[in-house]
Amino acid sequence: MVSMPEAKPARAGLSPVVELRGLHKSFGALEVLKGISFTAHEGEVISLIGSSGSGKSTLLRCINMLEVPDAGDVLIDGEAIRLRGTGEGRHVADEAQIRRIRSELGMVFQSFNLWAHMTILENVMEAPLVVQGRQRAEVEAEARAMLDKVGIGSKTDAYPSQLSGGQQQRAAIARALCINPRVMLFDEPTSALDPELEVEVLRVIKVLADEGRSMVLVTHDMEFARSVSDKVIFLHQGQIEEEGTPDEVFGATKSARLKQFLNAASHS
Amino acid sequence: MNDDIAFWLSYLTNGKHLAWYASFQFTIFAALMGGGLAVVFGLTGATLKNSRFLPLRLIGTIYSSIVRGVPDVLFFLFFPLAFEQAVEWVVASQICTPESIAAQTSAWPPCKEANWFLGTTEYLLLASVSLGLVYGAFATNVIHGALRSVPTGQLEAARAFGMSPGQVLWRIQIRQMWVYALPGLSNVWMLVVKATSLLSLLQIADIVLWADRLGAPNFLPAVGLVHEDWRWRYYLVLFVFYILVTWLSERAFEAITRRVGKGILSEARV
Amino acid sequence: MKKIMLAAIAALALGGSAMAQETVRIATEGAYAPWNFLDESGKPAGYEIDLAGAICEKAGLTCEFIVNDWDSIIPNLLAGNYDAIMAGMSITEERLQTINFSDEYFPPDPSRYVALAGENINFEPLAGARIGVQGGTIQAAYAQANLATDNTVVSFSTADQAVADLSAGNLDTIFADGAYVDPIVSASNGAIEYTGPEIMIGEGMAIGLRKDETELTTKLNDAIVALKADGTVDSLIAKWFDGRGPYYSE
After folding, report:
1. Chain B residues with CB inside 8 Å of A160's CB?
2. How big, in percent rounded to 5, are the helix, strand and coil portions of chain A?
3. Which CATH number fits domain C111-199: 3.40.50.11240, 3.40.190.10, 3.40.50.740, 3.40.50.11720?
4. ipTM score of the complex?
């Protein structure tokens, strides 16, 4: 279906798509993010790596405000998401704004989260129809094309529960693609999958990366992060411990903690 | 033998019996309308209970916990009467004149013009609303639990794609909730069906009242067929009717469950 | 509500003449043969229905019967659900406090005890017995006042339920209007028989009306007086009560 090129072409654009400035987030007494900033540019693929509990998933979920940071700002295409209040009471100030911004961010979850009562095709068409208010015929053609692209074009009328995990995750990717997102957000997209199903999902993500889509990816798969990313960010206890190109991070590791982490990851 | 059959055929089709058969419509109407309203009130109550705003949440909680504790018979008697008097009170405040109030001799309503006459139709509607309110409190709990059974990840996904809270509730949560709610709602429905036997309390000539009248012993040929206490025979017919309704309801709920459970209940791979 | 307003407007427009066409709604129990019962067709029939026909014709009124349970028959009259009651209701002091009565149309009649044949009930004094009555009747009031301390008084919502319970052996005796139990005793072929003393309570049966309906009361009374004088009432009593009477005509 797709070839997996060994080396990735250089392709960092110019304009920032996602910009995080000084994000802090606590759950009760536990401080999960301790002031994190980074910028993802147009066409860039950024991988967030780190041990479990390092805050990488929380950080991703702050981008579309599934978690609201206690302090700090999130900018999408240069537009700051308006928040109100302080600390744990901080919340989204402008419902219409956040809905508009969310409809431009395609999120893929670890546990797929396909809507169980809809067929695969309906899942993919739902947001374009209901949130974006687009024409049904146009959306359906696009949805079918997306499902073909991820290799499950024959499963359009099946329900999620009738598919394998890998098929479900590919459907979830098609769902995220069909809203024509500015950025794709992947939250450990292969963690819930058996190794043999992981490959088919990774292959699809790789194709998207090669197409030049902007992506932020949380992953535990170091080899994949290395092959797909423009930039790798290593989080440790809520802070950025090390960041750089895959070659810098994996080839010339500076931090002792990252070395330890990479060692453990390669032996698992 | 043939004479016997002819006699029973004509006896069982006399006006009195036809009135009994016709009265089944009241029971069926009250059950369907009461059941439908119970679902509407249940959805409303459950949504209130899930609300982010404390006052709304309190209303939902108070409704479901208080009304569930009130015996249905009591509510059945209380609600129509209270509603009637409330309407009469409002009407009275609009149309009663000092003269008409002075002319009124009984204690209620304030003036005769404000009197609201309740016939079978009005009582039937009020009875249905009563059933809906009482069993809506049970449905509130069932639906509230069912709403919570919908996997949160799917709700989160809906939010992540930009759906409004209303869209998440209506397009994802409520659509999937039925499969978890139906077992409980089928119980609530059976309670509603059983409670329709209370209609005669509201002066509605329903199946129970007619069974009483038809089965009552008769000693006078002038009144009709002389017979002893036959009420048990008529009650037996009502038993059979309610068992039939139960059986039909179970079939119907199975069919509905299959329908709303598509994708959620079937685990087969294709 | 709209209907009531329309009726009021119509009454104003047509003036006094509207009264003649007005429908008088009469409530009856439909379970107290031979005064009132539901015939085979399910419609009210009996002495009171025949009599009401004659009274309304005489008074130039259009009448219609409404079937209403005995125990709510006075409250619903007061609530205005209908205009009159003809349901074997005796005139009593207690009832006169809330409603009015027309002239009587059935004479005072002794109340009677009945029991299953062969039950030797000691009435000197009556003690330890289960006595069935219809709730809200003059017999129920009498039993509560005079018999309840030494006996169990069981109240039924209709009279025929009391009879059914007596036949089933759940009661020792029933205390009821004599003219109600008469046909039951004779139809039972000796299975149910009179027992104990006859007791005079009540002041005859009459039409129950709201106290403010003086005009209607007068109209009905005029008709009753005329029908008593011309023998109609007596002939209807004789027809429905096994040749009783005459009470009111020469």
Report:
1. 263
2. 40, 25, 35
3. 3.40.190.10
4. 0.90
